Amino acid sequence: MLDGVLNLDPGKLSTCVSCGLCLPHCPTFRVSGEEAYSPRGRIDAMRAVESGELPIDKTFVDFMETCVQCRGCEPACPSGVQFGDLMEGTRSALASSKRITPWWQRMGFQVLPRHRLLLAGSSLLAVAQRLRLVPKRLGLATLPIRRPARLAATGSDVWLFTGCVMDAWQRQTHVNTAKLITAVGESYAIPSAGGGCCGALHVHAGLEDETRRLAADVMASMPGDAPIVVNSAGCGAAMKDYGHLIGTPDAVAFSMRVLDVNEYLAERVDRLPSMASPRPTVIVQDPCHLRHVQRVVDPVRTLLGHVASVVELDDDGLCCGAGGAYSALQPDLAGQIRERKVASIARATSRSDASLVASANPGCSMHLSAVLGDDLEVRHPVDIVADALGL
User: Fold this and answer.
1) I need a surface site. Which of 34, 159, 161, 325 has the fewest CB within 10 A?
2) What is the DSSP letter of 292?
3) What is the radius of gyration, based on Cα positions, of the chain?
4) pLDDT at 33 over 60
């Protein structure tokens, strides 16, 4: 960062006309009522700092750090403001000057691509949960102590991206994804060891250089031109952005190969077997990086509709407050945002017989599971479909 300037694209900054249509879609504005906690308020602050009218002080840093980066404002914006790019650029500038993402966060992020260390640490954390040593305010759902065996490749029709946290905490979803890929008559390959982390959490934290290194490793771990199936909404959004992040033809081509698992399976839903049990009723919660960033909405309904009766929420896709590491770093705001989502789920439950909530992102599902209790189970759509088909 040069002379305190954020180095943002002035054209992107000027696109916002402060119309306010983003406000109902911003979770931090909804819970706080503060203009500074809205997209247009944050853009105004970016403009003031960029022009030198205001310094980069604690107040400005707070405005930027409290953004969930859900990007719910983008589909609502009639001017097409690229708020995600502006926020990522601002955080990158702040992180490079050590104003955000302190050393302990950076050390934590360094564990993610070191898969054996991550698995061991996750198991220790799971044991600590059983011993009641993990504060409840962190909002973590119960982590597994044991995991299914790691997947073995069956062919080369598609790559099945396994990632870091998803493999450590929800490997059963990988197992069920593999079963469904097989059920539609295709085979899968597993990335080599270098593809252990996509960098989604790093880019959220402003660690742009580290994200590029991880992206290069992920690209090298899945060569060729086969589609890449991703069952974590946050990972898929990050990988679809590699073309923009790295800016090379190879990165653009790689991003074009990435498919969310719901996209992949919805195109092949007619190949899936028929139901093996009565149809469950399922409430759909759209992770922000699936709905607002990847714009994958209908495929989730198509896939679930093959085996279940789908119930919609009435909050127009408002964020649940998970936001990658946001729920751990901003627990108070994340909790207030989650309360609105839980209220919406309760309304959906009252008008249906649903006992399942479908959420295609590990952060969202765990953030919600931590408070929904035993009455409502939050599961990945892939897990719901695989169980319903008796796989």
Assistant:
1) 34
2) I
3) 20
4) yes
